[in-house]
Amino acid sequence: MMTQDAFCDAARQLLGDRGFTQDPELVDPWLTDWRGRYTGRAIGLASPASTAEVSALVKLCGEYGVPIVPQGGNSGMSGGATPDESGDALVLSLRRMNTITRFDEDAREITCEAGVILQTLHEKVEAHGLRFPLTLGGKGSATIGGLISTNAGGTQVLRHGSMRAQVLGIEAVMADGSVFDSLVPLKKDNRGFDLKQLLIGSEGTLGVVTGATLRLLPALAERAVMWAGLGDIRDARKLLVHAQKQAGDELEGFEVMPKHSLAAVLGHKHGARSPLQGTHEWNALIELGADASDADTLQDRAQALLESAFEAGLVEDATIAMNETQAEEFWMLRDEIAPAERALGPAMQHDISVPVASMADFVADTVPQVEERFPGTRAVAFGHLGDGNVHYHVLAPQGAMPGEWEASDGKVISAYVHDLVTQWGGSISAEHGIGQLKRDELARLGDPVQIAIMQQVKAALDPRGLLNPGKLVPLAPEASTH
Amino acid sequence: MMTQDAFCDAARQLLGDRGFTQDPELVDPWLTDWRGRYTGRAIGLASPASTAEVSALVKLCGEYGVPIVPQGGNSGMSGGATPDESGDALVLSLRRMNTITRFDEDAREITCEAGVILQTLHEKVEAHGLRFPLTLGGKGSATIGGLISTNAGGTQVLRHGSMRAQVLGIEAVMADGSVFDSLVPLKKDNRGFDLKQLLIGSEGTLGVVTGATLRLLPALAERAVMWAGLGDIRDARKLLVHAQKQAGDELEGFEVMPKHSLAAVLGHKHGARSPLQGTHEWNALIELGADASDADTLQDRAQALLESAFEAGLVEDATIAMNETQAEEFWMLRDEIAPAERALGPAMQHDISVPVASMADFVADTVPQVEERFPGTRAVAFGHLGDGNVHYHVLAPQGAMPGEWEASDGKVISAYVHDLVTQWGGSISAEHGIGQLKRDELARLGDPVQIAIMQQVKAALDPRGLLNPGKLVPLAPEASTH
């Protein structure tokens, strides 16, 4: 306790009153993850104002042996930014570091501190006719640092890749307080290991991301948004291949949802309308985007794509949004699935991927398998078919007790789904990371070779284990024999 | 010696006569790098036929403490695949592992062993209407494993990225003989550190790449190749920005060369003709590429691009290749610069990058600086302006002694150029890697924080230092005090 007091005095000395607090009113909101699954305790909340302050703070934590939990917008899905219950750790918020430090329109690059919020970045570059090609539900709170640390995804990964693909340069404070400065964007650089790539997606366990240089793209001049009704998920896969062949780089999005999900949205969301007259086992939402040079013929190309797909027998019916309002309505149907499904009762949600080529077969095969194995449940898969990544929900049987069901039957179901995913060569975390939510599942199902390498790298770069302890990296077995 | 004999017996036992040899006639050709800069000695040449054999061999090397020098096509530029002179190391050739194991046209993915030659891969996929979007001069010998280990570049990086961007999955044997198997291509996978990225570009110092899954693209339906004469390198930068705005994703290549380089090619290559009537201080070679859907209007777009650039005062004169033959002639002028310059006498060649936005200024500023500092020399920069990467040659003064000059004055000049690049925030190795050629320069000029992290990762994953010793990773100082 004495040591904790001494640390807090030193931290306050270093960062000032704005930079360090123990006031429960200020600290407590950041001790629970936004989904409300985890609540921890902390020695205090640090909000440094600069990379130099982060560096000095990390060194101070090293001196006192204080564990550090880095935090951005606290909108992660896996509890990766929530401290444990010991109360030993410091929450290190990057939110005060929210300056855009360089913006080069011609080079289409922007450099900013880690605490810049995604939506702020969008607005900044859109005002200059550019766009940052990554977005997701939590854009109003998610920070650039958090998005990098979790290698966030979203609905534009199909064409533009995940956060990793947007990062041109990075700055991070390592466990010993040294500053890894690789902010200068070099398109080609072969001076050894790509440490930037190692830090992206490491969930704050190898270093604290303090800044980044990101790539930007020209604003889309126009988009064409289509809705197609399909008889079979395997036709969705064929339609995807067809669209990729015909639309090439213009294919911006390809999302699928089953009849059940669309019905749930139509029942849940006031004013929602189905884009098509009839009902279909599956629905696909397809978006093409065009730069200025190609905008005038985009609708024609969308029309041609749907006609040829219809002739090939891939779609039962289809339509193109007539205007931007209707395009927004189509996307709203997709975005409302999660809340609509949630309103139907308890469900286990899984953020999984398999190879893109296998996803249709995976869904077709495993949905009945899960429903048969756990009578009364309903399995619903929807989302980014083009990325081989679906949200795979298993809804509880009628009458299941919320809270109780998730902790008992739900756990068994999740383990079963994760087993299936692993058998299909897939990932138990496509987008949301491991955090504390899936660390034990990773230990259970991950490749032992890969886990061993992760442990070795972690031990090398953070030998005292002070950076985000308990997250992501499975613990080394107490007495390993292999 | 006894131990070496015992190792060789065991290796022969393991791999058979085709898999292990000490016959100088078979071994010697692989002990000198293809540029003839380095010659080493080796305990033998191992050519395993499978990943399992590589794994067993690496374990065997661990037992006997035999260092391993992995080798693909032996066409590297930095001596990274050549053993040292001790004769202690084993050359581990991957060339026998040359099977394409999976080819999925719809998914546009191919999985192959590390020893597959780049040109073989090109031919295989082109026969199916696809292309692998990376090529370089050594494509007839360079292997996929070598290209991955060095993160190779080429002339298509502008649009498609370097080798790193083509790799969807990887298989590698680690220092302890364990097999890192990440061949299954998951477009989204957030299960922790991206170890695949760590291995790419690590030059065999962290693991031996044994296989990969690569992305493919649709074949280009058409290309438009343009040649433009410019008054100033800074106009080339403006023309690049202009082309990126107007052509967007269609911009496949943007290369620049000064008057001197074009004159050298015209004087050196029989039958070579200048695309333009007059001479210009600088020349730009620009390529647009289009998929089938856009091919019909590509020439029009190229025409419009040049016209607007002319109106903006960016180009002095310009022309579009009328047919594929002429397009090949334009590219030949670019590809012949290196041999043509070489015929002019000794030169120090530098493979450097700075931020794309700074490259024109860097060339404009430093060329006169170098020529003034070293009287009688001529500095010539040409190549991938769109990547911020030029080949920066400094030609010896008239009468300099080949061989002698490079080792004396040439060394001083290279250090000077590397100093300049570092001051501009650039890289002393844009494409060719570090190998043994630039390891000391990396130690001299690299960021100490980054070097320390590299040393820590290397020590963690290869604690005995048996994987490609002496390459890439600067040695830790004997008695480090920081």
TrEMBL record, chains A, B:
Molecular function GO terms recorded: catalytic activity; FAD binding
GO biological-process terms attached to the record: respiratory electron transport chain
Positions of the FAD-binding PCMH-type domain: 38-219
Transmembrane segments: none
InterPro entries: FAD-bd_oxidored_4_C, FAD-bd_PCMH, FAD-bd_PCMH-like_sf, FAD-bd_PCMH_sub1, FAD-bd_PCMH_sub2, FAD-linked_Oxase-like_C, FAD-oxidored/transferase_4, Oxid_FAD_bind_N
Coiled-coil annotated residue ranges, if any: none
Name the UniProt record assigns to this protein: FAD-binding oxidoreductase
Organism expressing this protein natively: Alteraurantiacibacter aquimixticola
